[in-house]
Amino acid sequence: MSDHLPPPPETGCRNAPLLKERGQREVFCGLTGIVWLHRKMQDAFFLVVGSRTCAHLLQSAAGVMIFAEPRFGTAILEEGDLAGMKDAQDELDREVARLLERRPDIRQLFLVGSCPSEVIKLDLAKAAQRLSARHAPHVRVMNYSGSGIETTFTQGEDACLEAMVPELPATDAHELLLVGALPDVVEDQALQLLADLGIGPVRCLPARRVDEMPHVGPNTRVALTQPFLGDTLAALERRGARHVPSPLPFGEEGTTQWLAALAAEFGVDRDRFERVTAAPRARARKAIAAAAETLRGRSIFFFPDSQLEVPLARFLTRECGMEAIEIGTPFLHRAIAGPDLDLIAPGPTLSEGQDVDLQLDRVRAARPDLTVCGLGLANPLEAEGLATKWAIELVFTPVHFYEQAGDLAALFARPLRRKELLKVGAAATAQREIGA
Predict the structure, then answer these.
(1) What global pTM score does this model have?
(2) Intervals of CATH 3.40.50.1980 along the chain
(3) Which of 9-18, 226-235, 393-402 has the lowest mean pLDDT?
(4) 373 is in an annotated binding site
(5) Is pLDDT above 90 for 370?
């Protein structure tokens, strides 16, 4: 349904050889997901059970001013807790009681595990059951792990949503469930498109408030808006829900195919589909074209960081004319990423996991025009003359669906334009110095 794009390749990358790497990693931990989750769920609170380092990470990542009162905090594990000199469960009960007394607006409380709490084997699942029984029905207490020991930062959202699935009421209604935390304005755009197509009822996970939480059952159809929700999807499927596979809604093509898959599932006729999508598709194509002038013919290398790498590579290669050298991702869930992989022409190296030293060797040998990586690698690579894009920015920025397609392309064009401007400025400075 995107006839301005190149035709799909005869063989995509779904079954391409996968380079599996297991070594040193350079990623944020799953606690980072709280930064966008606490903004999404308006009556929830995220209590990290961790160290002062965990608290500093969250405060820095969220950029919360000192006089603000966000919907997250840290129950600090002191030396006595870590050494087993205090009963950490009793301490946690007291902290939760104080928190709920001070913040009566809290309806959902998440106890979030961290590296320190997992090292001392603090049973937060047991604590959540005990506290939920104690504070019911006003507050529901759940737990999940945000530890970075074996995970990347977007898996914090996956763990959070997975923890919510067993609590969802059962239903036999034929409904669509959108899964993945989106900025409210983007979610509203998606809901309006679906309503215009006549698809509904539509629920969202996570919902903005606990009273709006969806139900789930054998007639629930699941549409993912993020590619890193494999555990949540598995939990929903255990409840009987069925996934509607499609490319992820990045760019004009991805959004159109995402909507087309749902239109086919809910029996929307082609004329109505074309009528509803024609105008936003045209706007998206026009917005992408402006940034694609900078991106076309340029090469890109993805370090594994956010699990957004596969759909972004599809968007950039097919809609912006870039060449992918390597598409690295922390974990490749083929059932989710498969439709995007089908649209990526064979050629790029597909890698899962990370051995940062080996990947640095490959990126230095390839010298791509643009490298997508974590904050810890960006500055050193910039110092070596490689233009970079921070992977974490792609999670914090609204980039889904038609109206954000141009902004998504511009995020990748901006570092290349900056590099060209710096080069021109340096040349002008050198010329002035020669003239002087």
Answers:
(1) 0.91
(2) 18-25+287-423, 30-151, 175-271
(3) 9-18
(4) no
(5) yes
- Flag whether 29 is marked binding: yes
Hey, what are 319's tokens?
């809609």
For residue 73, the model assigns a pLDDT of: 87
Write the CB contacts of 14 (distance below 8 Å, at least 6 apart in sequence): 334, 338, 341, 342
**Separation CA 248–CA 407 (nearest Å):** 16
- Tokens matching residue 388: 């970079």
Give the tokens for residue 261. Answer: 């898959």
**CATH top-level class of 18-25+287-423:** alpha beta
Sheet with strand 220-224: strands edge to edge:
202-205, 175-179, 220-224, 242-243
Residue 422, Cβ density class (10 Å: 0-12 exposed, 13-18 middle, ≥19 buried): exposed
Q: Cα(13)–Cα(411) distance, rounded to whole angstroms?
A: 25
Enter the tokens of residue 136. Answer: 């019911």
Which structure tokens are listed for 297? 């013919």
Cα distances from 348 to residues 114, 253, 297, 300, 329, in angstroms, run 35, 20, 15, 10, 13
What dotted CATH number matches 30-151?
Answer: 3.40.50.1980
Read off the pLDDT of residues 117-136 as tens digits, 9 standing for 90 and up.
Answer: 887 888 999 999 999 999 98
What single-letter DSSP state applies at residue 1? -
DSSP H helical ranges for 136-170: 155-164
- Alpha helices, H only, 198-325: 230-238, 251-265, 270-295, 309-319
Q: Which two tokens mark 418?
A: 């900056």
Q: Which two three-digit tokens encode residue 427? A: 């040349």
Is 299 exposed, middle or buried, given 0-12, 13-18 or 19+ CB atoms closer than 10 A? middle
Strands 44-50 and 72-76: parallel
**Amino acid identity at 118:** E
Strand partners, 372: 302, 389
Q: How many CA atoms lie within 13 A of 351 on its CB side?
A: 23
Query: Strand 220-224 vs strand 175-179: parallel, antiparallel, or unpaired?
Result: parallel
Q: In whole angstroms, what separates CA 402 from the centre of its chain? A: 18
pLDDT at position 433, please?
A: 67
Burial code (b: 16+ CB inside 10 Å, e: under 16) for 131-163 equals bbeebeeebbbbbbbbbbeebbbbbbbbbbbbb
**Cβ atoms 349, 16 nearer than 8 A:** no
Strand partners, 22: 354
In the chain, % of residues over pLDDT 90? 69
CB 255 within 8 A of CB 284: yes
Going by CATH, does the domain composed of 175-271 fall within 3.40.50.1980? Answer: yes
